[in-house]
Structure prediction request, 188 residues.
Amino acid sequence: MNRWLALVPLVVLVALAVMFVGWSLKRDPEFKPDALVGQAVPETVLPMLTGDTAGPGMVDLKTAGVGRPMLVNLFASWCAPCQVEHPRLMALRAQGVAIVGVAYKDDPIATRAFLDRLGDPYAMVLVDAEGRAGLDLGVSGVPETFAVDAMGRVVAKHSGPLIDDRDVQRLVDAMQAPARPLPTATER
Prediction:
C-alpha cells in the first residue's frame, strides 16, 4: 500500500505535464491581443519631456491629439527594436503624420539622448517612467504603436517594430478613415 502512495506525486506530475503540453500545442504564438481596438484611449496623465527632464507640463494621453488622428508609439532608449523602427517613424513625420511618443519605463536623460542621436519623429514625447500608460494600454512590450482617430478611439494596433510597409500603411489608413456616422433614430 505504501508503494502505491509513493507513486501518487509522480502520477500528478505526469498529469500536469500532459496538460501543459496540450495547452501549449493549442496556443498560437503569433496571437497578439488587440483588446483596446474600438475603445477610447484611456485617460492617462503623463509629464511631457522638456529637454532632458520630465515635466513640468502634464498631458492626458486621451487628448494629446487635440481632435486630430495620431499614432501613439511606445518606445524606449534601451529597446533595440525601437531603433530598428525609428527610420519609419521619421519618414511618417516627413509625410505629416502626427505621432505622440511615450517613453516607456525610460530615464528622461536617456530618452533625450536617444532622440538627439536618431532624430525626433514625435509631435510630443510623454514620459511613462513607472509604466502606467503601458498598463492602461495593455502593452506586452515595446515598441507598440496604436492608431487613434480624431475622436480619440483606438482603431488599430501593431505590436513590435514597424518594419513592414504594409503594417505602416494599415495604421495610417485606419487612423485617417472617416468616422462612421452615429446611428440615428428612424422616423415612425
About this structure: The beta strands are 45-50, 53-60, 70-75, 99-104, 124-128, 144-148, 154-159.
